[in-house]
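Incident review: delayed structure delivery

Summary: a single-chain prediction request sat in the queue longer than the usual turnaround. Root cause was a stuck worker, restarted by the on-call engineer. No data loss occurred. The affected request and its eventual output are reproduced below so the record is complete for anyone auditing the incident later.

Affected input:
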Amino acid sequence: MTVVEIEYCVPCGFLERAESIQHALLENFGQQLDGVLLQTGDHGVLQVRMDETLVYDKQEDSYDVDEIVRSVRNEL
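Output delivered after worker restart:
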């Protein structure tokens, strides 16, 4: 199965966004995932990885939880 990792910037206050992504992924794919992990970071990071594959990066994509869910669905 798959592990999703959400790395978020603590100083930027991205915890709420990371939790929103985590909640949406667990709600949609809870039984298909081994886990959705939150990892603290800095320097403005907000990234979502599935087994080391980058599926979302705040630096490249606009923040849209539904789009992140679709990206994860495509990888599953």
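Verification: The chain has one domain: 2-75.
Action items: add queue-age alerting; document worker restart procedure.
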